[in-house]
Write a structure and sequence with these properties.
It holds the Pfam family ADH_N. This protein is an alpha/beta fold. It is built from nine helices and 16 strands. The strands form three sheets. Strands 3, 5, 6, 7, 8, 15 and 16 form a seven-stranded mixed beta sheet that branches. A six-stranded parallel beta sheet has the order 11-10-9-12-13-14, with helices on both faces.
């Protein structure tokens, strides 16, 4: 198989495409022929050496999320067949032509979704849905989403609106019309964000989700959001300083399936910025730079 790998920690340029042995599924596992793979900040942190997954065995693969077609069944697998289109999570192995995963973690891909969109939903759907549940977001809430135009923010805005909440989202001005289309009230992040939120809010902000860092928790506290309803997925240090929540929504094929079903019905959308697998380094650089809209996805040619 071909896979994006790195031989030392560092910038996007350390990535290369390598030929590796095809992985073989064990009992209860399936091998997926990958068609698309998401790129996320966790991949960046591992590649840079900030998060280390076990012994430093190089070359090191990357990638947490995939969509593709079942290619091979391990012993004892039922309910799946070769050729089934699927999506799901993996651990530092998704940006490749093949990946082996537990059959129980696989989610069926609806025909209404193409492979890039399916891959784009995997991590964002599980993170956003889990975070909103932990924070108890529902009808009558006013939710502030920091970094609302990113992949997690995109899903969080739409799920919160479906739950009956009013949503205010921070983003660069270039993404404000995009947030309006999602149903959020946009404000610019950075200096003056507290005043900007107060200007558009029609009452108190009752809950906040931080997918940005960079002072988002401090701003949420200043706005008077109850500390037990401020959750971050990126800034553990600020959460400890201010006594707010770190939301670590675990992986859940069931929750992923729920969001995928909404997307298949056209109720929820996710913009995709696509790069070929051969340009994995460029895709990582884009994610590392931030400020993008939707999800960066690698396309793995059949």
């Amino acid at each position: 198989m071909r896979a994006a790998v790195f031989d030392r920690y560092g910038p996007p340029e350390v990535l290369r495409i390598a030929d590796l042995p095809d992985p073989e599924p064990g009992p209860g596992q399936v091998r997926i022929r990958v068609r698309a793979a998401g790129v996320q900040p966790f991949d960046i942190a591992v590649r840079q050496g900030w998060i280390k997954r076990g012994p430093e065995n190089f070359p090191h693969q990357v990638g947490q999320e995939y969509s593709g077609v079942v290619e091979l069944l391990g012993e004892g697998v039922t309910g799946l067949a070769v050729g089934d289109p699927v999506l799901g999570s993996t651990m530092m192995a998704g940006q490749a032509t093949h990946v082996v995963v537990p059959a129980s973690d696989v989610v069926a891909k609806p025909p209404e979704l193409d492979f890039p969109t399916a891959a784009a939903l995997v991590a964002a759907a599980q993170t956003a849905s889990g975070a909103l549940r932990e924070l108890g977001v529902g009808a009558g809430d006013t939710l502030l989403v920091h970094a609302a135009a990113g992949s997690v923010g995109t899903i969080a805005v739409q799920l919160a609106r479906l739950a009956g909440a009013t949503v205010i989202g921070t983003a660069s001005p270039a993404n404000h019309d995009y947030l309006r289309r999602l149903g959020a009230l946009p404000v610019a992040y950075g200096d003056g964000v507290v005043e900007a939120v107060r200007a558009v809010a029609q009452g108190p902000v009752t809950v906040a989700l931080d997918a940005a860092g960079r002072g988002a928790i401090a701003a949420s506290v200043e706005l008077g959001v109850p500390r037990d309803r401020i959750g971050t997925i990126v800034d553990d240090k600020a959460a400890a300083e201010f006594g707010t929540m770190v939301v670590r929504a675990g992986r859940s094929p069931a929750r992923l399936g729920e969001v995928v079903a909404l997307a298949a019905r056209g109720v929820l959308t996710m913009p995709v910025r696509a790069y070929p697998l051969a340009e994995a380094a460029e895709a990582h650089a884009v994610v590392e730079a931030g400020h993008g809209r939707g999800k960066v996805v690698l396309i793995v040619e059949p």
